[in-house]
Amino acid sequence: MSAGWSKDQKARWPRAIGALDGTYSPPAVDALDEARLKALSKELADLEREVSPSDVEQKQRRGIVNHLKRVLERHVRGSTLHPFGSAETGLVLRRGDVDLCLVVKDLRKPKSVLRHLSNVLDTEDYRDIQTIGRAKVPIVKFTDPTTGIPVDLSLNNALALRNTELIAAYVNLDPRVKTIALAVKHWALQRGLANAFRGTLSSYAWTLLVLRHLQAVDAPIVPNLQAGEPRRVETYDGRSHDTTILHPEGFQPGTASVAELFAGFFHRWFVQHAWDERIVSLREGDDPRR
Question: Which domains does the chain possess?
Answer without folding.
Answer: 2-51+162-272 (1.10.1410.10), 55-156 (3.30.460.10)
